[in-house]
Zinc-type alcohol dehydrogenase-like protein (Paraburkholderia edwinii), 338 residues
Amino acid sequence: MKAVGLYRYLPISNPEALIDLDIDKPAPAGRDLLVKVEAISVNPVDYKVRAPKDTVEKTPRVLGWDAAGTVAAVGPDVTLFKVGDPVFYAGSITRPGANSEFHLVDERIVGHKPASLDFTHAAALPLTAITAWEALFARLHVSPQGADEGRTVLIIGGAGGVGSIGIQLAKQLAKLTVIATASRPASAKWAKELGADHIVDHFGDMPAQMKALGIPQVDYVLMFNDTDQHFPTAAELVKPQGGICTIVENERPVPVELLKAKSAAFHWEFMFTRAMFGTPDMIEQHKLLTEVARLVDAGTLRTTVGEDLGRINADNLRRAHQMLEEGRAIGKLVLTGF
């Protein structure tokens, strides 16, 4: 089957950073679904895994952790899906990725595709929807039923993939006042269209901008961009007994002592945790994606496709990686069909 992958971890400018492959088609076992991949989207995790290092793979490594497709075969223990079902999912970081014609994924982290979306627009949602949902509702314990209506959230990185769905969840479900960061007119426009009440520039003086809005502190901070750079500002802006959740790994020690006087909470969100450790509640991601699909079909949430880059091949995937590395993407980058 066709796939895109790598043997060596190289700068994206190198043509061999991602290459077209022909590899064996896998077979499902246990609770696996074999999915015929129709569309994928690309996330920062892809280029971070692909980042240059000395390792050389003996067999090709396939990346990609966002997909939509059709169930082609099922393992003997599958109970949630049948052959022919259209699905969407993010998969597991510990298994081969979805940049291939056929892909194995555990049914417990898969959802039925929203009926109102084609495969391309559905592929933009899983990883970011799971990440934003878990960050806001599971880590910060915000009510998805609107019980915290009127409270405030600052979303740092509002126009990125996770920010794009995070704004919608915070506004449409949680009923929060949403302040999103964006540094360009196009990204600010995108965040406003998704429901942000206010925009601040994360390259400027955020505390001063927040004071100018009449919102000097917020109940929650969702940090979807550069933990090292933004944590001190987040600590300054969060209210006493508020909470911060980040999804971005740090390179320097996080100065959590800045939160002590405020008794403020600090959380990590990593959407691969359940699949990576085989936690007993893995099926919660199936339930989560099922609810996201329902909300999309009801018109409460919208897809977050920013740009369709064409067919799934090495050239287009290298382009997607480069756009993400350069911070030029708004919303999600998607590719469709081999």
The mean pLDDT is 97. The chain has two domains: 2-125+273-336, 129-268. The longest strand covers residues 32-42.
